[in-house]
Design brief:
The complex is a heterodimer of chains A (about 350) and B (about 180).
Chain A (H helix, E strand, L loop, with lengths): L4 E5 L5 H9 L6 E5 L8 H4 L12 H12 L4 E5 L15 E4 L4 H13 L4 E8 L4 E7 L36 H20 L7 E6 L4 E6 L15 E6 L6 H8 L4 E6 L3 E3 L2 E2 L7 E2 L2 E3 L5 E2 L6 E2 L11 E2 L21 E6 L5 E7 L3
Parallel strand pairs in A: 1-2, 1-4, 2-3, 4-5, 9-19
Antiparallel strand pairs in A: 5-6, 6-7, 7-8, 10-17, 10-18, 11-14, 12-13, 15-16, 18-19
Helix pairs in contact in A: 1-5
Chain B lengths: L9 H8 L3 H18 L5 E7 L2 E12 L7 E12 L10 H4 E5 L7 E2 L2 E2 L9 H12 L12 H9 L28
Antiparallel strand pairs in B: 1-2, 2-3, 3-4, 5-6
Classes of the chains: A alpha/beta (about 350), B alpha+beta (about 180).
The structure holds zinc ion (2 copies).
One zinc ion (ZN) binds next to loops of chain A.
């Protein structure tokens, strides 16, 4: 296996330790970093590569700079955002490493890897109480291979965090434990790169307290809550500013398309300005609950309530939007547009930017 | 282009949304449940608003208004929108799933149309209806921490005034108390 692109999700205790190891991977040309958090003083003791001057800065940006320093010439993209908000195309064909601290985010990680066909999915975890370091190695492109959630039980699906409750405490894991999980993950990547062995979905756990190592093969479970469906992706090189929605439909030439959706985004119909100026918000594809800018007063405005967002845009709603450039409809590089036809398989298009 | 084809069946609508597998089974079960819940009493009406959406309307006594000075108890019809996002069986946020549409209700665990309550991924319509009704009727109030601090103060100062509506959600012809059919095992 050869990896040209990597997607590193989460830059805490394990992610910050995995970053320099990934930076040394031969053949790598692009790394995408995702973390919505900012660096806190407490992070300095248990996360790698930080200095006191970084406190208050975005983790994604600080580690992007660190990565560019470690490997000049590498293309580095930083998302200071929730994992659920990044374009689905970022997962496609990538070596995906999840260094997350909660299962809600792991659900997004897993779905992205399988739906967009990542080359490899690694999920890392640590537990401070008995010094456990874990890596799960999954193969989203292999038919019938286990997904991350196949081994989950009811208890692994956490209830929504109370919006009114104080934030969850940090894991309390040391930098050493994070580095152990990162090393385990990187060794699995090296093995896959160097050998021609059949890739097997596997979980490896090291317990530093009891000095034990556990390893088990992971199997696809039909009762898994994830549907294991993959999108049939083809790339659509275009300019988001110069291509209108109508032109995109023409390029895509899907016969009998009746509805479109943008994976992970929701169509917000034109809304009234929440500042009360009487103006309107432009329609477009935005994240759940994501707002926009009022066309009249220019103030940022609250988005549609979730119930008012649409998952798909039916053909009947297309005409007023056909002349609008994709960028103004909220589309971004590596977003995935799916066109559904009443008869037949849906077609999905991964947007890649052309320089025009 | 051909004019849009009308969507006749839930199955076709789910296909357009790209919904398959366990989540399709869940939504099918919710659509069956919706009509049973609609006929299960005088308080709740359930309307389908799409393959993955429902409107719940509660006829109950609640506190309407936006602050301590203008709030008043009233018997009214409260509308809530329910949306089940594609990954609802696996992760859930109350802001996505429940939107209080009308009227403006004053409650410590509610702000901007969004309730705060313990939402488990895959929670079905019956349990959601119960949770929302208990909040609207002030049978359930989390007075430890809230979303609306002014309503929280009111709740603490007027403990003798709530609950506002003590009726159970399903006052008559209650549907069989079987375990909720969530469509997945
Ligand atoms: Zn699975
Ligand atoms: Zn405005």
């Amino acid at each position: 296996m050869n990896f040209e692109r990597a997607l590193l999700c989460g830059l805490g205790n394990t992610g910050s330790a995995l970053l320099p190891l990934l930076a040394a991977l031969p053949g790598l040309r692009e790394v995408v970093l995702v973390d919505r958090d900012r660096i806190e003083r407490a992070n300095l003791a248990c996360q790698a590569g930080l200095t006191a001057a970084d406190v208050g800065r975005s983790k994604a940006r600080v580690h992007a700079r660190r990565l560019r320093g470690l490997r000049p010439g590498l293309k580095v993209v930083a998302y200071e955002q929730d994992l659920a908000r990044i374009p689905l195309g970022e997962w496609h064909g990538a070596l995906v490493a999840g260094c997350l601290d909660n299962n809600e985010a792991r659900v997004v990680l897993n779905a992205g890897a399988f739906r967009a066909r990542a080359a490899l999915l690694l999920d890392l975890g640590v537990r401070a109480d008995n010094r456990l370091a874990r890596v799960s190695v999954l193969h989203p492109c292999r038919a019938g291979s286990a997904c991350l959630e196949c081994s989950w039980s009811e208890a692994d699906y956490s209830p929504a965090r109370h919006a009114c409750a104080p934030p969850a405490p940090a894991s309390g894991a040391s930098a050493a434990l994070g580095a152990l999980a990162a090393s385990l993950a990187m060794l699995e990547i090296e093995k896959l790169r160097d050998s021609a062995l059949e890739p097997v979905a596997r979980e490896v756990v090291v317990c530093a307290d009891s000095h034990e190592i556990f390893s088990s093969a992971l199997h696809r479970r039909s009762a898994c809550r994830f549907e294991h469906s993959a999108l049939n992706l083809s790339t659509a090189p275009l300019s988001l500013d110069a291509t209108t929605l109508g032109e995109f439909f023409h390029l895509a030439s899907v016969r009998g398309a009746t509805a479109m959706r943008v994976e992970g985004r929701f169509y917000h119909p034109p809304l009234s300005c929440s500042a009360g100026c009487g103006g309107r918000l432009a329609p477009g594809f935005r994240p759940r609950g994501g707002g926009g800018v009022c066309q009249v007063c220019g103030r940022p405005s609250a988005g549609a309530a979730a119930f008012q967002c649409q998952t798909v845009l039916a053909q009947a709603e297309w005409p007023p939007l056909l002349g609008i450039p994709l960028s103004r409809l909220g589309l971004r590089d590596r977003d995935v547009i799916t066109l559904a036809a009443a008869d037949g398989q849906p077609s999905s298009f991964l947007i890649t930017l052309t320089s025009s | 282009m051909n004019p849009a084809q009308p969507i006749h069946s839930l199955e076709a609508e789910l296909a357009l949304l790209g919904i398959t597998g366990p989540f399709a089974a869940f939504l099918n079960a919710q659509h069956k449940l919706a009509s049973a819940l609609d006929q299960a009493g005088d308080v709740l009406r359930v309307t389908r608003a799409g393959a993955d959406r429902f409107l719940l309307s509660f006829q109950c006594r609640t506190l309407i208004g936006s602050n301590q000075r203008d709030c008043r108890a009233a018997d009214c019809r409260v509308m809530a929108g329910i949306w089940f996002p594609q990954d609802y069986l696996r992760r859930a946020s109350t802001a996505d799933v429940v939107t209080l549409l009308d009227p403006r209700v004053f409650h410590p665990n509610l702000r901007g149309g969004v309730f705060c309550f313990e939402l488990k991924p895959g929670m079905g319509l019956r349990d959601l209806a119960h949770v929302i009704y208990e909040l609207l009727s002030w049978q359930t109030v989390n007075t430890v921490h809230g979303l609306d601090d002014e309503a929280l103060d009111w709740a603490r100062a007027n403990r003798n005034l709530w609950p506002l509506d003590t009726r159970p959600l399903f006052s008559k012809r209650a549907p069989a108390a079987e375990k909720e059919d969530t469509g997945h095992v």
